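JOB MANIFEST
job_type = single_chain_structure
chain_count = 1
residues = 97
[input]
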Amino acid sequence: MLGLRVIAVGKIKNRAIDALCSDFQKRLSRYTKLELSEVKDVRESDVFVCRARESERITEQLARGRAQSGRLIALSEEGDAMSSVALSDWLQATARA
């Protein structure tokens, strides 16, 4: 079974979005192992400094995790949106590859 590990930058501050994420996590856990963790966001006026420091925190979090094979997939709010069905299809195809 394909497992998913999500490392998010910062906490979700909007309660409605947090509730949606919790619901999605609960639904998804029926089909796969899901591990969620957060790294503290960086408050800095220089966006490049912010991203570099947040990247370091994500890398540290990855190093603390279990040694496992798999793919590293970076997501960004500026990236392409994907429906749940499209995400499911993509994950299944990735698991077979």
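[summary]
The radius of gyration is 15 Å.
The beta strands are 3-9, 33-39.
exit_status = 0
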